[in-house]
Amino acid sequence: MKRSFFVIVLALVVVIPVFGQKPLRFGIRGGYDFLDQTLDKGIFNASNRTGYHVGLSLDADLPILPFGLNVSLLYTQQNIKNTDEYTFQKAYFLDVPVDLNYTIGVGGVGIVLSAGPYIRFNLDGGNINITDVENTYKAQTFQAGANFGVGVNLSSNFYVGVTYFTSLTDNYKETDPDFEEVFKRKPDRMALTGVYYF
Description:
- The protein has helices at 2-21, 177-184; strands at residues 24-37, 50-61, 67-79, 86-88, 91-106, 109-124, 128-130, 135-137, 142-153, 158-167, 188-197.
- By secondary structure, it is mostly beta strands.
- 14% of the residues lie in helices and 57% in strands.
- It has a single domain (2-197), classed as Porin (Beta Barrel), CATH 2.40.160.
């Protein structure tokens, strides 16, 4: 937890000066998350795993236009339908994506390409219980990865887009040999998201 706190503080130290020098846009961000490759489909059918996210978003222009920087703080909930073989706990996360944005003006709208890292803190849940082996695999508290997105600024106050998240850390550890390779697979997810700027 101390390492996670240090990472957040370091990110804020780097980002806040940039926001302080450029015009800011502050908004409310929310959307729908859907997953299709969370774990090995041969064992877990993850195609029905969905969720939502809601939180705050800050944008700032960088000195070299048309580049910008976005930082969001999101509360995310994920669900999965349980089966006879396993039970998946509903999971709650705090996500902090930091993105470099590139905006292209096309036909009066701004097409936004974005990419950057994210960190994720598991607030509760996400554990998997496998009935046959009567064992519970606990989700890790700290996770991290990269995200890539494309969207449109429909106006000065509204953005809508799609973001792809790929994890770069192991979300489950200390698994037995039969399931070790399964849980080493990195979960990918995609989210439809919108931001309303004040």
